[in-house]
Specification:
Length: about 375
């Protein structure tokens, strides 16, 4: 059994993949070839955004978004500690300060009530209101923006986050690395913030065969700046450089692969819904496990199907059982970011974000992909139910 089965998908689209790759080999425009523009146009239409700017990874997408806002040392960016390192890493990379905000215990996404408290604490420079990073040399920090993460494929609560952002004049960058295809009412993931950033890392809902990513925005100016940043801060032409940028382009070959994969993405999205429903039907009645909560009006992209065990010992026991039956599992994420050595310099303490710390000890993910069969799922559920 595979945790994510990319082989079955590959066989399904083999001829489209081969012909798309061959086309690139024939025309030879390996950098910014026609497939890149085609992909951007398709994903603009799909996400309902005006501009799609492809790039080299999800991390670069987040970096380009922050750079487009001119984020710099002394700036504070609010985000969650229960995410992949890249979300906060890009903030630090620009010399700005990640200000962590705990998650909602049901959705695992940023908790808007705590976000409001964190903003208030920062503005009043009062950590008794909410835990703050210690950044002795840069005080006071300037509140600039928020990066909510659509964890495991479920969009964050953007109605609440956006109204807080508006009140305080902050930008919102949606980390949609795991949520491409997800929805809230009639809006698509990647369109919830001022800029949406996704990843095409192979294991993501829409993945390529290497690294890739994309920024989405309705703002003409931000789009223009991100296009410039993507190619070394180019101005009117390649050797006219108007700002500091990066080499952040998406390879034409990866765009060609994504075009083949995107053709079956809407079908795969539906299959993922069915797989998730079957898991929940099997496991929800099992009282010692908590199945994922999808609030009314939301559709998850199901990047992961994650269960909550009773405690750390219970999780260890379940993972061992699954392993004994050769069922692959994963833990996203065993250590919240404020407890990572990389962020030690922020001087957060254990206990600062109790929900993230608790969930990190209890969460684990089951195999999840569109081609998981009912038989496989039943056998997984039986192993878990025996526990
Ligand atoms: C995967 C991921 C990223 C980074 O994407 P890459 O393409 O691997 O650089 C950022 N944020 C989250 C939440 C992710 O899951």
């Amino acid at each position: 059994m595979e945790f994510i089965d990319l082989k079955t998908q590959q066989l399904k689209i083999e001829s489209a993949l081969n012909s798309n790759i061959q086309k690139v080999l024939n025309h030879g425009s390996y950098i910014m070839g026609p497939e890149v523009k085609q992909l951007e146009a398709k994903l603009e239409a799909y996400t309902g955004t005006k501009h799609a700017i492809s790039c080299a990874s999800g991390t670069d997408a987040l970096l380009m978004a922050l750079m487009a806002y001119g984020v710099k040392p002394g700036d504070a960016i609010f985000t969650t500690p229960f995410t992949f390192i890249a979300t906060a890493e890009v903030i630090s990379l620009l010399g700005a300060t990640p200000v962590f905000v705990d998650i909602d215990p049901k959705t695992y996404n940023i908790d808007p009530a705590k976000l409001a408290l964190a903003i208030k604490a920062l503005k009043n420079n009062d950590p008794s209101i909410y835990p703050l990073p210690i950044t002795s040399n840069q005080l006071p920090l300037t509140t600039r923006g928020i990066i909510p993460v659509d964890l495991f494929g479920l969009p964050a609560d953007y109605d609440a986050v956006s109204s807080i952002a508006k009140e305080h004049g902050l930008f919102v960058i949606e980390d949609a690395a795991q949520s491409f295809g997800a929805k809230h009412k009639d809006k698509m993931a990647c369109s919830f913030g001022d800029i949406g950033c996704t990843s095409f890392f192979p294991a993501k809902p829409l993945g390529c065969y290497g690294d890739g990513g994309m920024c989405f925005t309705n703002d003409d100016r931000l789009a223009e700046v991100m296009e410039s940043i993507r190619v070394h801060g180019k101005g009117g032409h390649k050797y006219d450089n108007v700002r500091i940028g990066i080499n952040g382009r998406l390879d034409t070959l990866q765009a060609a692969i994504l075009l083949a994969k995107f053709d079956i993405f809407p079908d795969e999205f539906e299959l993922r819904q069915a797989v998730a429903c079957r898991y929940t039907a099997h496991l929800a009645p099992h009282s010692s496990l908590l199945t994922p909560h999808v609030p009314e009006g939301y559709m998850s992209a199901w990047a992961q199907y994650s269960l909550l065990s009773e405690d750390e010992a219970h999780r260890t026991e379940l993972l061992k059982k699954l392993q004994d039956h050769k069922i692959p599992t994963a833990i996203y994420y065993p250590k919240p970011l404020h407890m990572q050595m990389a962020f030690e310099y922020l001087q957060y303490k254990t206990g600062d974000f109790p929900v993230s710390e608790d969930i990190a000890k209890r969460i684990f993910s089951l195999p999840m992909h569109p081609y998981l069969t009912e038989t496989e799922q039943t056998s997984i559920a039986n192993v878990l139910k025996d526990g």
